[in-house]
């Protein structure tokens, strides 16, 4: 009996060992020599396409290589900034002046006592010139301008009014011991040149007869009062120069003084350039 039980147990163990390596269903796979079995990957969802980059506002053309043996193409550049034009390149013309306006201006000069005379039309070419120029020898009675100045009538009128209503009253307060002003010394009136005497750039208002440069004021007694940097000058003379410089903007559309820049350290630049909206530049 014991032998029968042992035999049955052995047979059961062999059956278990035999069935352990077999799959639950189907035939056992045949393994060929030299090949291994690899599991097939489980198919997943298709990959998403990569988003296209946004198109820039301005496209850059692709760079192409030149054919072998040819010269490389020139680098494409943006538009060049316009170079400063010389006097000849500006092709300016002399602005015509109204007969009626000139006549009215002349009457006002005569009423103020300005000593002047009309001279022939000036045309130096390339926009330099004055349609109706005048030559002034006295800006007000007894106040000479040295040397004689040539410009348009509106400049003479602005100069006479500025002297009468601003410069003379301020000088009486600032330099009472020096007596009356007897002259103004000008550094430039009409001249055919570019701004600040540069070799390139825009035509100066002096070349159109619109400007006068004042270098100093002469008195009956004492020294001339020169125009020079006086921002830190705490004297009455410093106050005089700052006062007449500021007041100049009431009579001229442009006033540049020694505090403006290095080109005007020795004089006032006064001009009557007309700007849109009545804009004035005073510095």
Automatic annotation (TrEMBL):
Lineage: Bacteria, Pseudomonadati, Pseudomonadota, Alphaproteobacteria, Hyphomicrobiales
Compositional bias ranges of the Basic and acidic residues kind: 49-58
Span of domain Extensin-like C-terminal: 104-283
Entry superkingdom: Bacteria
Record keywords, A-Z: Signal
Coiled coil (UniProt feature): none
Native source organism of the sequence: Rhizobium altiplani
Stretches for region Disordered: 19-86
Signal sequence segment: 1-20
Classification via InterPro entries: Extensin-like_C
Descriptive protein name: Extensin
Keyword Kinase applies: no
Pfam families from the UniProt entry: Extensin-like_C
UniProt KW Signal keyword: yes
């Amino acid at each position: 009996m014991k032998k029968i039980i042992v035999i049955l147990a052995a047979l059961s163990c062999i059956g278990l060992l035999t069935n352990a390596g077999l799959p639950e269903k189907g035939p056992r796979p045949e393994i060929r020599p030299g090949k291994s079995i690899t599991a097939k990957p489980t198919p997943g969802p298709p990959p998403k396409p990569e988003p296209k980059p946004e198109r820039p506002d301005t496209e850059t053309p692709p760079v192409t290589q030149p054919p072998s043996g040819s010269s490389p193409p020139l680098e494409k550049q943006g538009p060049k900034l316009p170079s400063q034009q010389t006097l000849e390149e500006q092709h300016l013309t002399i602005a015509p002046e109204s007969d009626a306006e000139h006549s009215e201006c002349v009457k006002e000069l005569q009423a103020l006592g300005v000593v002047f005379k009309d001279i022939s039309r000036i045309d130096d070419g390339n926009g330099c010139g004055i349609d109706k120029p005048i030559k002034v020898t006295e800006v007000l009675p007894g106040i000479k301008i040295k040397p004689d100045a040539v410009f348009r009538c509106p400049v003479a009128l602005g100069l006479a009014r500025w002297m009468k209503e601003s410069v003379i009253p301020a000088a009486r307060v600032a330099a009472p011991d020096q007596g009356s002003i007897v002259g103004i010394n000008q550094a430039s009136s009409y001249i055919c040149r570019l701004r600040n005497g540069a070799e390139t750039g825009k035509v100066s208002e002096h070349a159109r007869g619109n400007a006068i440069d004042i270098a100093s004021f002469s008195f009956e007694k004492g020294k001339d009062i020169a125009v020079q940097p006086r921002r830190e000058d705490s004297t009455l003379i410093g106050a005089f120069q700052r006062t007449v410089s500021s007041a100049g903007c009431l009579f001229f559309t442009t006033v540049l003084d020694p505090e403006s820049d290095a080109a005007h350290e020795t004089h006032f630049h006064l001009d009557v350039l007309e700007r849109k909206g009545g804009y004035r530049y005073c510095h």
